[in-house]
Structure formats: structure tokens, C-alpha cells
Amino acid sequence: MNDKPHLDEEALAELRDVMEDEFDILIQTYITDSSERIKALHQALSGNDQDSFAKTAHSFKGSSINIGASRLGDLCLSAEKAGREGRLDDARQVLPELEAEFVTVRRMMEESLHV
Amino acid sequence: MTDSANPRQLRLLIADDSNTDRLILQAILTRQGHEVQAAVDGEAAVNLYESWQPDMVLLDVMMPRLDGVEAARRIKELAGERLVPVIFLTSLSDSGALAQCLESGGDDFLPKPYNPVIIRAKLGAFDRMRRMHETLTRQRDLIRERNEQLLSEQVTARRVFDNIAHTGCLDVADIRYHASPLSVFNGDILFACPRPAGGMHLLVGDFTGHGLPAAIGALPVAEIFYGMTSKGFSGPDVLRELNQKLVRILPTGIFCCACFVEVDFRDRRVRAWNGGLPDGFILRVDGSRDTLPSTGLPLGVLAPERFAASMSEYVVRPGDQLLLMTDGVLEAGNAGGDWFGEQRLARVLDECPADTSPADFLVEQVQAFSGRSEDTDDLTILALKISADDPVASRPPKASHSALTGPASWSCRYQLDGETLAGFNPLPLLLHVCMAVAGLRQHSGPVYTILSELYNNALEHGILQLSSLWKDGAEGFNRYYAERQARLKQVGSDQYIRFDLEHRMRASGGRLIIRCQDSGKGFKVDRNPGPVLSVGSERAFAGRGIPLIQQLSSDLTYNKEGNCAEVVYDWKSVDTGFEERAGFSD
């Protein structure tokens, strides 16, 4: 259902170029912030807080797109929509998928850092 | 990317609560050569804006504490007149939400993921807009400042102008006039000045153009008109000087349409010259009217040698009204696009009630026609009611501050020889010499009249041998002046008119002795004519002049030959309290 790449190599190369020495810091920051956001999404779901769920998913979407994690960005968009429309069951369905995708992205990023 | 496509370095404020996005944007902008500061929420962004005053602001839409939309509103408020472009950073995908960003005060949005090429292009575009706005604001402020300066300069110029033109007699009861307070900057002028021997000169004029060039021309006109008129120069003399001066100082294409009128209340005559103004009018008591049409070119057009200053003469009676106007009357328009025009003017003059000044009536009618009172800003109208008595002469004399200054004891001789008699009027010069005595200045009218009667008698009867009997009737008048012109051309080089003036101070005043001798044969004179000559006998040799001189002076005597008259004029200073304070009581 989603044929977008886990990580857009071209975008990542561009970022590496733009960020220069700060590229590592950027990746670390993304990984840390994303882990926080996944925690926040779980919390929002258990508290049935659809608004907070949607907002967090929105921010997660923005930074994922920016860093080249396109497939994760799409999953964030689905989560954001489900949250905004109050479809919490759908949200509960998409969250594990999103979490799994993040694990993949994270692994790929850490590999690229150690190249 | 070439250098020319690079926007110059800008101070950029970015605000995003997402660390990743903020780091990326900051890196992109810094690499493009800008100075960047970052805030983590809306409130921090507003504070940073205030303290750092960046050129542009890039805001994430969704932020904690204060969202991007509200932060943008506050920043725009703080920026005031400055144009500070606000660009929203967003991953919003639906167009409704994007449009909302712009409606809430943003200038544009930048989608995530960030694209350095698009960012560079957008910043460049906004920087151009920002600089254009700065230029416009600066120019607008400059224009506003210049305009204020111009207005204040006009007020100053107006004050200077009023100082030069204030000596006029527009305030006498028989004159009614209408002129906008800033009419001089419309190019309109309106002057009235009493003549030393009685009567007055009137000048209504209209310079081509508006503003400063028109006002500048009005200054020398006022100076010459008032200066020469008070020194006793005749209408044609003043006109010639005005024309010559304007020809010299005004650029081609700027000139002064004018109507100049000399009013003689004693002789009940009006002499008029009109160059380019609409017709003036004499509205007769019997309801008829004479027009004073334009017969020459405006002042400031013709070279002095081609300028004709001859004036048309009209006999008037008390109660007649003289009416002069600029073309603002004829050109007044109404909402329908019609002009007031000559036909309407003629109708208004027919309908003017006898007890209303035509100037007031005309202004009312033009206002009613145009339906807008501001239209009367361009109206310059003057009406003078001819009265039986000279309205200026009956005004109380102005007390002089320094009656005792100037020369006290002096004498002089001034002689005009040969053909100089034909073309030169010595009266202003002689009056000027006498007026050096400050106390005599209050007597300039009688002194001028005496000088001018003596001179005219000597010239017309002594030298030219004209008979005043010819002056009876209109036809005779013309013959008299035709003959005068003809004989002036034949004055021999041995002919002369000589004035001897002598002045001495006396207790609380002085005595001026004027002797006037001519080279003519003289006339038979009763050796002892007595205090007043009978009307019948004086007409035979010297017109009305002699009884007038007798009336004005202490003594008038002629020599045996009848070609030398001596007038004694005793004057007392108008009490200013000056003498007592200064200890001149004896």
C-alpha cells in the first residue's frame, strides 16, 4: 500500500551537505525527538485525547518529511487524520505500524552515521 | 546559482518547536549567507522580534504557548509601517488551511520538506518587495516633509508680500473686493493706491501659471505700483515701468493680464488700460454701462519700445460703479460642465440691485451658479463706487513718527530745457526732494497738486501757448490735447521751465517756497488779483489751476510778465507729541 522509500537517500545526502558538521547532531536530535513523540502518541491514545494525538502526529509528520523519511511521514499523516476526525480505533491500528517504520528508519540512520 | 540572484544578507528570525525542522532551516539559511536567530515558540519569537528587529520572520504554524498565526499578528502590529514579511512554515496539505495562513496576516508559506532553491527564490522576492516598500515610505515621508515646508514657505512669502502690498487703500468704504487669502499663489493680484494729488490707481491682474512663479512676479508689481503711484507718477508711467520690469524678469510664456485704472474724483474722470483681462465695466447710475475692453497685450510681453501705455478716458458721475475682474468669473464651472460665461455675467450686471455693490452681487451669483463655495477661490473682483468726494483724501492723515528729521533748511534749482520738456515728467522727482522733509510728508497731496498745477500752467500756457478756452466741450477737449501733442514736438532748444525750491523750519512747522518760471511770453495778470480770482476771469488764462493753488497755499504771486509764479506753502506738523518730549518747543 505504500511504495515510498523508508529513507530518501537523495534527500539525506542533501541534508548531509547542508548540515556539514551538524549532520550527526541533526540525526541524533531527530531520533530522540521521535522517540519522545511516539511516547506522547501512546499517552494521548490511552487518555483518549484526539486533539493532542493529531497535533503530535502533525509535528512528527513535518520533521519526518524534512529528514527524508517519506514512508514514516505518510503514516504520520494517516495518524493525524484519524486523530483529527476522532477515529481512535483507526489511530490504534496505525500506531504500531508507525512505530515499526520508525524502528526501520532509525536503524538505517544509525547505519549511515557509522559509515 | 549566480551572485546576482543572491539576496543580500538579511536578519532572519525563525520559530519552530520542532528541533529537527528548526536545525535544518537554520542551517539552510545560514549557508545562504543570512544572519539567523531561532525561537522555540510563538512567544519567544515575538520577544526576539522586539529586541532584535529582524528583516523577515519565518514561523511554524502550530507551536505551543503562542501559535504562528497569533505571533504573526503581534509582530505585524509591532512593525507598524515597516514591511516585515512573515512566512509560515508548514506541512499543512489542504489548500483551505494554507489560505487561512495568508488571511491571518502571513505573506506566504514555505512547505516542508524544505527546498533550498525555493527558499532562496522566495527570500529574494520578499527582499525586493521589502526594499521597494522602504523606498516608497521614504519618498512618501520626503514628499510630506517637502509639502509641509512648501506650505510654511507660502505663509512666510505671503507675509512678505503683505508687507509690500499693505500700503494700499483697498480698505476705503467705497471699494468692495473679493480675493482668496492665498490668491497671490493663484497668480491673482489686486492693488489700490491713493495718488498724492488725490484720486487713486487700481490694478487687477492675473499672472499666467500658479504657485511660486506667479507669486514672484507679483512682488515687483506691487513694489512698482505702490512706489510710483505714491510718488505721483501717472498711469502710463507706472504701466510702462511694470511692463519693462516684467519683460526683464519673467521667463517667456509667463506674463500678467492686467487692468489698470486711474480714478480722478475731482475731475470725475476714469482712465483705463486693459491688457488681456476680461472687460471691466462702468455701471452707470442710469442703468447703462460702458465696457473697458482689453486693447493691448498683457504686461510682460512686449519690448518697452513697442508697449503702448495709452489709456482710454471716461467721464463718470457720483454713484457710478467701476467693476474689474479676473477670468475666474467667466471660467467658473458648475456640476453640469457649463461655464459662467459672458452672457450670464451680462444678465447679473443687469439684475444688480442699486443698493448692492456689484462685487458682492457677482460673487453671490457665481457661488449660486457653481454650487460650490471653493470655486470662489479663483475669483478676484473689485468694485469702486465713484463718490462726490475723494474717499482717500477724507481719511485722517497718518501721524509721522519723526516730523523733525530730514533736511530743515535747503534750497535747490531744477531746470528742464528744450525737447526734454516734451518727454519727461519732473513732478515725481520734485515731490521726492520735498518729501525728504519728514514733516512735509503729511502734506504730500497739496504739495504735489501745487507742483503739478504750476508745471502744467507753465508748460501748456507758458511754453505751448494753449488756450484753456478750447477745453470747453468734449470736442474742444480733443482739439486741446491734439494741439498739445503737436506743439510738444516743436519745443525750441532755448525754451525752459525752472523750479526754485526753498525750505525753512518755523515754529511747529515749516515754510516751502516754490518758484516756477518758464521761457514763455507770460500772460496778462491783474497786478493784484486779490485772494480769490473770479471764475470768469481765471478761465481766460490758466484753467482751474490758480484758484486751486490759492486755496492750498498761504500766498500766490506772479511777476509782472506773468511767466514766474511764486507759491508760499506753510505747514504745521501733525501733533505726535514728539516735539515736547524732544524739547523742541521753541
From TrEMBL, chain A:
UniProt keyword terms in alphabetical order: Phosphoprotein, Two-component regulatory system
Keyword presence, Transmembrane helix: no
Pfam assignment, any one: Hpt
Top-rank taxon, per record: Bacteria
Gene3D superfamilies: HPT domain (1.20.120.160)
Phosphohistidine PTM sites in chain numbering: H58
Location of the HPt domain: 19-115
Coiled-coil ranges (or none): none
Protein name in the entry: HPt domain-containing protein
Originating species: Marinobacter zhanjiangensis
Automatic annotation (TrEMBL), chain B:
Keyword Hydrolase recorded: yes
Keyword Nucleus annotated: no
Pfam families the record matches: Response_reg, SpoIIE
Sorted UniProt keywords: Hydrolase, Phosphoprotein
Residue ranges constituting the Response regulatory domain according to the UniProt record: 11-127
SMART domains: PP2C_SIG, REC
Positions of modified residues (4-aspartylphosphate): D60
Domain of life: Bacteria
Stored SUPFAM superfamilies: CheY-like
InterPro entries given in the database record: Bact_Sigma-Reg, CheY-like_superfamily, HATPase_C_sf, PPM-type-like_dom_sf, PPM-type_phosphatase-like_dom, Sig_transdc_resp-reg_receiver
Protein name: Fused response regulator/phosphatase
